[in-house]
Amino acid sequence: MTPPLPLPAECPIAYRFSAISGTGSDTRRGEEGRERGEGGEREGGDRALPGGYIESVELDPFVERFALTTSRVVADHLATGVSVGDLADSAGYSPFHFSRLFAKVFRTTPARYVAAMRFHRAKELLLEHDFPVIDVCHEVGFNSVSTFSRRFSQAVAVAPGELRVVADHLADSEIQPFTLGSLASGTVTGRVVFDDGVRARLRDDLVHREPLVWIGAYPQPVPLGRPVSGVLRRGQGEFLLPVTPAAPWVLATAYAASTDPMHQLAAFKPLVAMHPGPVRPGDAIRLEFREAMSWEHPVLTALPSLARG
Asked: How far apart are CA 178 and CA 262, in angstroms?
């Protein structure tokens, strides 16, 4: 049996594993999470997430190792599927205690993360190759094309075949700033901030034209599915974002205006920002961008498609 990942003496990110799960040494194994449906996820089987997400910057070495190890196991089993029990076994913990820590670090459930990584890989295959949708479906572990297409559309906000149409449109024309949603529902004011590292990555665009910045309001703290509202703007500065109680999580990504369609729609380690807690109308926030870590939840939404309504 794989030994549990060791705990550091102190965890500066506010949560030690024992504080999350009640114990750091429970290695009981159950069948919880082993049932999986099409594509490796039990539909309707996810629990409500606990509060207090761990910030994904300057992680404690234990948490970073946990995240990297878990994401690698997921990446190695995209085609065959991996359950919560399998992931818990790889870390040396019970499914219950593993899921508690996972939710704190990844801001979603294990089943939803596995599905997100599958759909991100499907986006890469659709954009890099001319494979039929049915081949992509099977490559990422789905047996039913209809199930794959339905869930892909929910996660990415466009159908698998339409993603290529969006890419062709981006290759022919440049997307223009726009607002998604009504300002009458209430707004959040904010400021986009780039540090030296982000400015270095966007250097060419900062000289010739401002990079594109997408800011969206989501029902959950991960960029999954169609946002309820959003703003596409250029560069740093202030913004006004429509918000509703149904979508209190503000997530953002930025890329050079000259970026090719592949990297706009399926970027690896994109520039991202997130407000650490849910927002309400009238709030003022600051979004500081950074490069996403390799294990973080991918930006699944095909954001350029939202400009077409």
From this structure: 21
Q: Tell me the CATH number of domain 122-167, given options 1.25.40, 1.10.10, 1.10.1060, 3.40.50.
A: 1.10.10
What's domain 175-308's architecture? Sandwich (2.60)
Domain boundaries, the chain: 17-114, 122-167, 175-308
Q: For the chain, how many helices (H) and strands (E)?
A: 11, 9
112-143 pLDDT, tens digit per residue, is 999 999 999 999 999 999 999 999 999 999 99
- Written as six digits, the tokens of 3 are 């030994």
pLDDT tens figures, 161-212? 999 999 999 888 888 899 999 999 899 999 999 999 898 888 765 556 788 9
Q: DSSP of 265-296, one letter per residue?
A: HS-SS-EEEE-SS---TT-EEEEE-EEPPTTS
Residue 148's contacts (CB-CB under 8 Å, 6 or more residues apart) are 38, 39, 122, 133, 136, 137, 140, 142, 160
